[in-house]
């Protein structure tokens, strides 16, 4: 049997494809919901798309949230590339993340204006490349209330250094460091303003090693000394680059608490 990502519908959730500022998105909300809703913007990872994250989005929508899942540049309906071809990851990875951050402000404004999002209850989450993107989006949009980052990194320069060491590549140039630093949450930690952050990461992650996330947590923790409960880092023993059921449960608990 061949399973289709379009092979099911939830009797509890309304799912619609929409374009928000010319970005193809999935919009999910509890069936029959009216008025303003707490809203989660969900960023997918490399080689994924809005449609491949549909089931996870349904889970969050079942808990009363409107969920917006945008296609990232060169993914889904946005001119997808051959992700496994040599050099593609190096060429496009960070550019896609930068574009997610650049697009996020107008996207959030449009979601508030035309998609019944409660402007005081908007959060962001993402997995892998999407978790890295979500961290940047959260940092540069002060109206976002909380962040959940699955297997991503909030310390971009550190993460890139780790990847290059693992792959035996040349160190970054000053120009490359400068380009990453422009959006690196670690370099703009004053903009976090003690807003709630939940970091969920497998300690055996071979795709996005946990090291840079540990560095970020240790660096940022002093900024949360008045409200330490708003910054939480959970490591999952023997978990590689995957989003577990327990991670999803922790994320829902976080949004229920802070969104």
Could you please describe the fold and organization of this structure?
The chain is an alpha/beta fold and 259 residues long. It has one domain (13-258): 3-Layer(aba) Sandwich (Rossmann fold), CATH 3.40.50.1820. Helix content is 35%, strand content 21%. The protein contains seven helices and eight strands; from the N terminus they run βββαβαβαβααβαβα. It has helices at residues 54-61, 88-114, 129-139, 156-167, 174-181, 211-220, 245-258; strands spanning 13-20, 23-30, 37-43, 66-70, 117-127, 147-150, 197-202, 231-236. An eight-stranded mixed sheet has the order 1-2-4-3-5-6-7-8, with helices on both faces. Helix 6 links the parallel strand 7 and strand 8. It is globular, with a radius of gyration of 18 Å.
Note the main attributes of this structure.
259 residues; alpha/beta; 8-stranded mixed β-sheet; 7 helices; globular; disordered N terminus
Summarize the structure.
This protein is of the alpha/beta class.
The CATH topology is: Rossmann fold
Mean pLDDT: 95
**Main beta-sheet strand count, sense and barrel state:** 8 strands, mixed
Shape: globular
Strand order of the largest sheet: 1-2-4-3-5-6-7-8
Give the CATH H-level superfamily: Alpha/Beta hydrolase fold, catalytic domain
What's the architecture, going by CATH?
Answer: 3-Layer(aba) Sandwich
Q: What is the number of helices?
A: 7
How many strand elements? 8
Radius of gyration: 18 Å
Distance between the termini: 40 Å
Low-confidence stretches: 1-7
The arrangement of helices and strands along the chain is EEEHEHEHEHHEHEH
How large a portion of the residues is in β-strands, by DSSP E? 15-25%
Kindly give the count of domains.
1
Structural class designation = alpha/beta
Helical residues, percent: 25-40%
């Amino acid at each position: 049997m061949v399973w289709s990502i379009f092979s099911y519908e939830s009797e509890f959730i309304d799912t619609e494809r929409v374009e928000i500022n010319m970005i193809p998105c999935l919009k999910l909300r509890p069936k029959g919901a009216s008025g303003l809703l707490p809203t989660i913007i969900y960023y997918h990872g490399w080689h994924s798309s809005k449609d491949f994250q549909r089931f996870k989005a349904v889970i969050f929508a079942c808990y009363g949230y409107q969920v917006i899942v945008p296609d990232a540049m060169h993914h889904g309906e946005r001119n997808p590339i051959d992700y496994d071809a040599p050099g593609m990851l190096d060429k496009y990875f960070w550019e896609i993340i930068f574009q997610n951050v650049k697009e996020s402000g107008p996207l959030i404004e449009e979601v508030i204006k035309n998609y019944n999002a409660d402007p005081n209850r908007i959060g962001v989450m993402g997995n892998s490349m999407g978790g890295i993107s979500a961290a940047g989006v959260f940092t540069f949009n002060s109206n976002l209330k909380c962040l959940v980052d699955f297997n991503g990194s909030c310390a971009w320069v550190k993460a890139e250094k780790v990847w290059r060491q693992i792959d035996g590549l040349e160190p970054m140039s000053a120009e490359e460091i400068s380009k990453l630093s422009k959006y690196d949450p670690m370099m703009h930690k004053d903009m976090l303003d003690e807003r709630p952050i939940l970091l969920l990461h497998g300690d055996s992650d071979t795709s996005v090693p946990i090291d840079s996330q540990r560095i970020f947590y240790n660096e940022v923790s002093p900024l949360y000394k008045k409200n330490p409960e708003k910054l939480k880092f959970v490591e999952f023993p023997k978990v590689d680059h995957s989003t577990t059921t327990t991670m999803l449960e922790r994320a829902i608990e976080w949004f229920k608490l802070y969104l």
